[in-house]
Every structure is written in structure tokens, then in C-alpha cells.
Amino acid sequence: MPYITKSEQIKLIDSILDHINTGSEIEVPQGFYTPREIELESGEIVITANGWLLAWDKFLKFLSTGIPQFTVYTKGNGKLPFFSFSALPGAKFCPGAGECLEWCYSFKCWRYPDAFFRQIQNTILLMSESGRQHLTDKFNAVVPDGVDFRLYVDGDFDSLATMRFWFTLLESRPNVRAYGYSKSWEIFTAYEKQYTFPANYELNRSSGSKFANTTGGASIPTSKLAQQIAKLPVFRGDFIAVPSNTKMPDVLTHRPEFNAWAKQLRERAKLYGIKRSFVCPGKCGNCTPKGHACGSKRFKNVPVIIGIH
Asked: In whole angstroms, what is the distance from residue 161 CA to residue 198 CA?
């Protein structure tokens, strides 16, 4: 049995935000207080607090001090070897989210207490001037020049003010190569009317947006708003999830199988009107010999597709 269910997590998020806005008491899931039993090699059973309670204690310290207690910018792993930032996913925080909510991978990391509370912490930091200053200070202290930075692994731009904060920060760090996937298209077009985009950010128009005029998420969007996005100077191209009957083979350990699978996926993409495409191998650090496609101007207007199974 999980210590906390997804519905309880959503209720907790709402309760935390209400607490910040109104000072109301936070309703804490009882599962946080369920003890964890550990059996030692001697056979002795040791009772300890579960991981949710430990993470909750850290989060309460953040709420009381305003100082981040969870990693703000992560340095990456084998799949995403870049620096990155995440916030809360969901319709309340991703204003352009549409059918992608049905298969959003960001909710999967809610199984892990630290990842869950990191998303909440980072979302809260974006809500205040002092929080944004923490984000700025951490960015300048942790993210060096000359690296790739993915702005939003989880979550998306939730407002014009949030976008203005990030793009002002990126303008101050021109040697950081930033990129992202977004469905917040209305915010991008509103931003263009008031500000200038940073030269070091590449936008991937992500499939599954409620602003697209497609169904199934596997077509290049052709709505009026989508066409406006394609004209923005930061627009790199589309990132589209294409249905696949089989799971993607590992590109590093099964290259021939991956190549055959990728060929089939490109053929399937053509059925959706995607004539030319680049298949995402699932590991950003080695998708091309000269950098990753989603952050490269060399792949301008080339749809990047990924199989969903």
C-alpha cells in the first residue's frame, strides 16, 4: 500500500497553496505517519519514519524559512545529462495542457517524496519576489556557462510574469544554452507583444496542447495560434508523440533494433502528415554527434518525434 495516493497528493497541493494564500491550516495525509518496518540481517524489526514523513519535515522547514530544502536545479542523469528545472504539472500549472494530461509522465515521479516536494517547492518559489531571488542566486551559483539547460522537465510556463522572470535571467546568462518543450502558446504570443526573447532559448512546440486543432497528439498543429508560434524567433520545431505498437529498443545496447523501430515510427508519422522527422532516442546527451536535436538550431523546423507505447 502506498503511503499517499495521487488524489491525496492533489488535495495536499491545494491545501498548501490555500495555506500560503489565506493562512489556513494544511491538511496532512495520515499516510505520512505510517511507520516503516525494516528487517535487519539479525531478524530484528526496526520501526522508522517513512520517507514521506522525512520529506514532509524538510518541506515544513522550507515553508517556515523560505529557504529551499530540496534541490532546485538538478544536474541530470544518463537520460538527461543537462541541468534542469521542474515545477508542478497539471491543468492548474500548465495552462496549455490538453490531452497530454492523459499520459503525462511528470506524475510518475510523484512516487518519490523528494521529487514531489521539489516540484511544490519550486512552484512556490516562483510565486514571490524573494522566491525568485532564491532561484536567481541558485542558478548563478550552480549552473555554469557553456552548458545545456532544460527549462521545465515537469511543469510549464504558468504566466507571463513567470516567463518574464526566466527569460530575463537567461538574457543575463547568454552562454547558457537553454531549451524547453511548451504548450503555453498564448503566453509566448503575449510575451512577443511586450518583450524580446532571449537569443539562447530554443522552443519546442509540444504536442498535446489544448490550443492545437489535432486529435491523438500525433499531427503537426495548424491552428491560428500554432502558426503564430511557428513564426517566433525562439521556435525550433515540433516535438510530437506518435503512437507505437512496440516499446522503443535501447539505442546504446540494441542499435540495429532501434534503427528498425525508428524507421517504422517515421513511416507511421507520415500517416499523420509528418513527412520529415527525427526520431528521439530517449537519451538527450547522445541523440546526434553534434549536440541534442531539441536544443539545436541545425534542426530548425524539423519535427522531433517520440514513440508512445
From this structure: 15
Question: Which range of residues forms the domain containing residue 237?
Answer: 44-308
**Cell 510575451, residue?**
191
**Alpha-carbon 220 to chain mean position:** 21
* Gyration radius of the chain over CA positions: 21
141 within a domain of the structure (yes/no): yes
Residue 24 grid cell? 489556513
Give the C-alpha separation, 94 to 207, whole Å. 13
| C-alpha cell, 139 | 542558478
Q: Structurally, how many domains does the chain consist of? A: 1
Residue 49, in any domain of the structure: yes
Is residue 202 within 8 A of residue 296, CB to CB? The reply is yes
- 82-125, pLDDT tens digit by residue? 999 999 999 999 998 888 888 788 999 999 999 999 999 999 99
- Nearest Cα to 252, choosing from 51, 117, 79, 35? 79
Angle at 228 between CA 273 and CA 268, to 5 degrees: 15
Bridge partners of 180, per DSSP, are: 203
Residues 6+ apart with CB under 8 A from 10: 90
pTM of the entire structure? 0.90
- Cβ 46 vs Cβ 38: under 8 Å: yes
Residue 28 lies in a domain: no
Phi and psi (nearest 5°) for 180? -170, 175
84, part of any domain: yes
C-alpha cell at 38: 525494516
